[in-house]
Amino acid sequence: MVGTWVSYSLTVGTWVSYSLTVGTWVSYSLTVGTWVSYSLTVGTWVSYSLTVGTWVSYSLTGGA
After folding, report:
1. pLDDT tens per residue across span 2-60
2. How far is CA 8 from the centre of its chain?
3. For residue 60, with 0-12 CB atoms within 10 Å meaning exposed, 13-18 middle and 19 or more buried, which class applies?
4. pTM for the full model?
5. Domain of life of the organism in this record (predicted)?
6. What is the DSSP track for 27-62?
């Protein structure tokens, strides 16, 4: 994909991808079992924890 980079760290077990075209980054931690995505266009972040089985979303434009 154009305007996108992906890095992966085996030591941390985490990968991060960023797309300049979408303005969104996603990080996932295998050690914690949690992923977080943020969209600059929407101003909202979402986190999900596999260990807890709960997701939380927050919108900067609209609140929690």
Report:
1. 455 555 555 555 555 555 565 666 666 666 666 666 565 655 555 555 565 555 555 55
2. 14
3. exposed
4. 0.29
5. Eukaryota
6. EEETTTTEEEEEETTTTEEEEEETTTTEEEEEETTT
